[in-house]
Design goal:
The chain is an alpha+beta fold. The protein is built from 11 helices and 15 strands. The protein folds into 2 domains: 191 residues, 2-Layer Sandwich (Chloramphenicol Acetyltransferase), CATH 3.30.559.10; 223 residues, Chloramphenicol Acetyltransferase (2-Layer Sandwich), CATH 3.30.559. Strands 1-6-7-8-3-13 form a 6-stranded mixed beta sheet, sandwiched between helices. A hairpin with a 5-residue loop joins strand 7 and strand 8. Helix 6 packs across helix 7 and helix 7 crosses helix 9. The radius of gyration is 21 Å and the shape is globular.
């Protein structure tokens, strides 16, 4: 990629008003989340209006959003027992402006989640950057493109928010930028993580293997940390045809089932090899009672199902979709069992490094308000993850044009990706024959 990015300004933005002090207690699901930052990008097409993504407007609306979402302006700290918490210090977040020679259409054509994109359009996350305050929880970069378009890059610490909460914050910030009062946030945030506290009498009813480190056989080991990534779009008609093949399975289950089949084939896994499909399930509406609509934190749990590669590849795609259903149908008793289980383990030592080269980890961003991030100049032309972390990662997202199309962001071993693209394209073409 020839274009570069030049930083124009870098500053710390604090809440526009005084905010509550004290600490926010983090649940076991917060502590079990990946330790680090989640970088995401939003691409905006120039619309010719004056003040398009003006730095002052973005900075001032961010400062007002931090009044409502005040824990984001704090820092991670420890309570008296050494447990990680959010210290609500109001110290602020990093806000960067930059300029790039990129043209939006070229960028969208070239874009795949990778380290290079993160480095171009995100402020470097601590501790890599000496200029960023230690422990900052949010870093934002507004990059002005040669064509007049804008890339908004966000780096939010995963210990304080999952994908749905991150989207909630951006949607609120955008509404404030459009002129709404911070006190009229679309959905007020709830920071009561005690709603996900372990029960006094811990009751672990399930095994929860996804939270245990197990020795990986050599044949299944990840041989390198590098990956190839891709963004693939399925039309509304292709999604409908796939769901019909899967007996009316949900969009997420049907799409993931096809990806799982094609990945097993592209990886040339022997028929007897075990392959595990991991997922992350949002439990907000599955708990009894459900969490408040504005619950801000981590409310997702890891689940998985295992099969042989031969079983996944040789059976109809509906069979894999039924297995995917087993991964995504857990309810309150499962979530409460997991929270109780995590109370008895050191969450600092949970497995977080990736999956083996026979496995996939699929995450649904379907139905999230990703394209409601309209700061007053129109909805984003694209939104997605900036990196994939490791090979075997799959995001299933709504495509930008809101017509039922689906976008996949996925990563595989570099040697497997060309074959995956071919196999997946062939299978999708068959859907509408």
């Amino acid at each position: 990629m020839a274009a570069t990015v030049d930083v124009l300004t870098s500053e710390v933005v604090v809440p526009a008003e005084e905010t509550p002090a004290g600490a926010v207690w983090l649940s076991n699901l917060d502590l079990a989340a990946r330790r680090g930052y989640t970088p995401t990008v939003y691409f905006y097409r120039a619309n010719g209006e004056p003040g398009f993504f003006a730095a002052d407007a973005m900075r001032d609306s961010l400062a007002r959003a931090l009044v409502t979402f005040y824990p984001i302006a704090g820092r991670l700290g420890l309570d008296g027992d050494g447990r990680v918490q959010i210290d609500c210090t109001g110290e602020g977040v990093v806000f960067v402006t930059a300029r790039s020679g990129y043209v939006l259409d070229d960028l969208m054509e070239e874009f795949v989640p990778c380290d290079e994109m993160r480095d171009l359009f995100m402020p470097p996350a601590p501790p890599a950057s000496k200029s960023s305050p230690p422990g900052v929880l949010l870093l934002v970069q507004v990059t002005y493109l040669r064509c007049g378009g804008v890339v908004l890059g966000m780096v939010l610490h995963h210990s304080i928010a999952d994908g749905r909460s991150a989207a909630h914050f951006v949607e609120t910030w955008a509404s404030i930028a459009r002129g709404a009062s911070p006190r009229d946030a679309p959905v007020p945030p709830c920071f009561d993580h005690k709603l996900l506290a372990a029960r006094p009498a811990r009751t672990v009813l399930y095994d929860h293997p996804e939270y245990k480190s197990e020795p990986v056989p050599p044949a299944r080991a990840v041989t390198a940390s590098t990956y190839a990534s891709a963004i693939i779009t399925l039309t509304k008609q292709q999604v409908a045809a796939l769901k019909a093949r899967c007996g009316g399975a949900s969009t997420f289950r049907a799409v993931v089932a096809l990806v799982w089949q094609c990945a097993c084939r592209a990886r040339a896994l022997p028929p007897e090899a075990e392959t595990r499909l991991y997922s992350m399930i949002d439990m907000r509406q599955r708990l009894a009672p459900p969490l408040p609509p504005g619950y801000f934190g981590n409310a997702v749990i890891r689940t998985s199902t295992v099969a042989t590669a031969g079983d996944v590849v040789s059976s109809p795609v509906g069979h894999a979709a039924r297995r995917a259903r087993a991964v995504t149908s857990q309810g309150d008793d499962y979530a409460r069992s997991l929270v109780d289980y995590l109370e008895g383990v050191d969450t600092a030592n949970l497995p977080r490094s990736g999956v083996s080269r026979a496995d996939l980890r699929a995450i649904s961003w379907l139905g999230m308000s990703l394209y409601d991030a309209d700061f007053g100049w129109g909805a984003p032309a694209f939104m997605g993850p900036a990196i994939m972390y490791y090979s075997g990662f799959v995001y299933v997202m709504n495509a930008p044009w809101k017509d039922g199309a689906v976008a996949l962001a996925l990563s595989l071993e570099p040697e497997s990706m060309p074959e995956f693209r071919k196999v997946f394209a062939d299978e999708v073409a068959r859907l509408t024959e």
